[in-house]
Specification:
The chain has a domain of 27 residues. It is built from 1 helix and no strands.
């Protein structure tokens, strides 16, 4: 799918992580101070 929309696969994965972080920040029970993002594998 990344190839079809002319984006890199890595860029799409980063975008998904950023959207997830944005979502946590919008939730009242979300704690941005305790948020950790960890990547594992390819």
């Amino acid at each position: 799918m990344a190839w079809l929309v002319n984006l890199s696969l890595f860029g799409m994965c980063v975008r998904e992580v950023l959207r997830s972080v944005d979502y946590v920040f919008t939730r009242p029970e979300g704690n941005p101070e305790g948020l950790r993002v960890i990547g594992k594998g390819m």
